[in-house]
Amino acid sequence: MDTLSKQQRHNNMASIKGKNTKPEMIVRRYLWHSGFRYRVNNPRLPGHPDIVLRKYRTCIFVNGCFWHGHEGCRHYVVPKTNTDFWVRKIMRNKERDKETQQQLARMGWHCITVWECELKKDRREQTLASLAFTLNHIYLKDRSILYQVPEEETGMCIAAEPEGEY
């Protein structure tokens, strides 16, 4: 049984933000101060990712553990009232997240999910450092693919080498 009236419950649920949440702001502040430039909630991409880094072709989703059903997390507890509704709702959210990430991957985008619990004070620095490392790795990996010399052409002269005899 719910301890709040319908109007109180409605007001509580209506006050929950979907954008500019505290975990999202923590990630955005860290990325900006680390020199990463991004866009927020890009409407042209499926799922409107929380953070989009075009240079890295990467989308970052900052997910709340409850709303996105973070398995094994102490912050994900199914409410004792209206349980069937909440289980269905969270399952739909998880399915939608999966479909969105698959669409983005088919479009050539990398997807990173940062969970709310990973941004708690005891784990925050490690999580954010890991995020920066991953972004730099993606950038270097993509650049090495773009500028990699195919194996069969390794015997060819490079512009800085002296010309051979013809």
Walk me through the topology:
Layout: H1 6-14, H2 22-33, E1 39-40, E2 51-53, E3 58-63, H3 83-106, E4 110-115, H4 124-147
Q: How would you describe what is shown here?
A:
- This protein has one domain: Endonuclease, Chain A, CATH 3.40.960.
- The chain contains four helices and four strands, in the order H-H-E-E-E-H-E-H.
- The chain has helices at residues 6-14, 22-33, 83-106, 124-147, and strands at residues 39-40, 51-53, 58-63, 110-115.
- A four-stranded mixed sheet has the order 1-2-3-4, sandwiched between helices.
- Helix 3 (83-106) links the parallel strand 3 (58-63) and strand 4 (110-115).
- The relative contact order is 0.13.
- The model is unreliable at 144-162 (pLDDT under 50).
- Belongs to the Vsr family.
- One of its GO terms (molecular function) is endonuclease activity.
Brief overview, please?
The chain is α+β, with helices and mostly antiparallel strands and 166 residues long. The protein contains 4 helices and 4 strands, in the order ααβββαβα. Strands 1-2-3-4 form a 4-stranded mixed β-sheet, with helices on both faces.
